[in-house]
């Protein structure tokens, strides 16, 4: 496993440890606090961080693009852990799509 994949796996392990059923403590952990507030709280953060990334990109500010993308990935991973989806599943899906042109994929859809 590459270093990039392992940080995602390690972060997912940490996020899972913050789930209420795993004893995550909202007083000691930002992630446990988000989980204690329920899905609306972290799903709202996903939307906010996506908007902040768009604004950074519109300004062509590479430093902010990196920071906002990290925030977006992080909050997306908070959601994935809550719903029992592992980052490896997303990486596998991207791998499955590797080499398949988006144009060809769209043209092959039954409704196209
Ligand atoms: N990668 C992150 C990470 N990225 C961002 N954040 C936090 O996400 C929060 C939201 O960012 P914002 O800039 O929107 O801050 P804000 O406006 O104060 O947020 P809100 O009060 O509106 O929610 C901030 O408190 C950031 O510190 C993170 N918090 C935690 N992690 C990872 O998650 C692990 C577990 O964290 P805890 O559960 O807090 O121990 C950590 O060890 C890290 O690896």
TrEMBL record:
<dbReference type="GO" id="GO:0004636">
    <property type="term" value="F:phosphoribosyl-ATP diphosphatase activity"/>
</dbReference>
<keyword id="KW-0963">Cytoplasm</keyword>
<keyword id="KW-0547">Nucleotide-binding</keyword>
<dbReference type="InterPro" id="IPR008179">
    <property type="entry name" value="HisE"/>
</dbReference>
<keyword id="KW-0378">Hydrolase</keyword>
<keyword id="KW-0028">Amino-acid biosynthesis</keyword>
<comment type="similarity">
    <text>Belongs to the PRA-PH family.</text>
</comment>
<keyword id="KW-0067">ATP-binding</keyword>
<protein>
    <recommendedName>
        <fullName>Phosphoribosyl-ATP pyrophosphatase</fullName>
        <ecNumber>3.6.1.31</ecNumber>
    </recommendedName>
</protein>
<dbReference type="InterPro" id="IPR021130">
    <property type="entry name" value="PRib-ATP_PPHydrolase-like"/>
</dbReference>
<comment type="pathway">
    <text>Amino-acid biosynthesis; L-histidine biosynthesis; L-histidine from 5-phospho-alpha-D-ribose 1-diphosphate: step 2/9.</text>
</comment>
<dbReference type="Pfam" id="PF01503">
    <property type="entry name" value="PRA-PH"/>
</dbReference>
<keyword id="KW-0368">Histidine biosynthesis</keyword>
């Amino acid at each position: 496993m590459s270093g990039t994949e392992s940080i995602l796996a390690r972060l997912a392990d940490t996020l899972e440890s913050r789930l209420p059923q795993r004893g995550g403590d909202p007083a000691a952990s930002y992630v446990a606090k988000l989980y204690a507030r329920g899905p609306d709280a972290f799903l709202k953060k996903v939307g906010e961080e996506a908007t902040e990334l768009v604004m950074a990109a519109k300004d062509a500010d590479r430093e902010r693009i990196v920071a906002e993308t990290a925030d977006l990935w992080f909050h997306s991973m908070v959601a994935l852990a809550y719903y029992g989806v592992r980052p490896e599943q997303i990486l596998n899906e991207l791998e499955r799509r590797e080499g398949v042109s988006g144009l060809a994929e769209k043209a092959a859809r039954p409704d196209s």
